[in-house]
Amino acid sequence: MTGLLTALISDAGGYLIAAGIGILTIIATYLRGRASGALRERDRQAASERDSYAEHIKDIERAAAAGRAVRPDDGGMQSDPNNRDNTR
Q: How far is CA 16 from CA 13, 24, 54, in A?
């Protein structure tokens, strides 16, 4: 029995090494794919945050422009019956 196992291992040594290398290659490919996917997800998230920030800046610019469009002497704020804009 021991002789049979020894013969099998010695003859199959090349196959075992090849199988081990194959398994390591599959694991390395899997890990590289996961790292690539994580990088792609981070890039997508960063692009989304940049777009959101740009939209936020545009909203702030529009609000600032609207604030300058209403002047106290043009009757807009004085005509407010609840005097909401003139509380000081």
A: 5, 12, 57
- Number of helices (H), then strands (E), belonging to the chain: the values are 1, 0
Above pLDDT 90, what percent of the chain?
Answer: 33
Total count of domains within the chain: 1
Its pTM stands at 0.45
Residue that is written with structure tokens 């490919």 in the block: 29
Q: Amino acid identity of 70? A: V
End-to-end CA distance of the chain: 99
Helix/strand/coil for 45: helix
Residue 76 lies in a domain: no
Give domain status of residue 35, yes or no.
Answer: yes
Percent of the chain with pLDDT over 70: 66
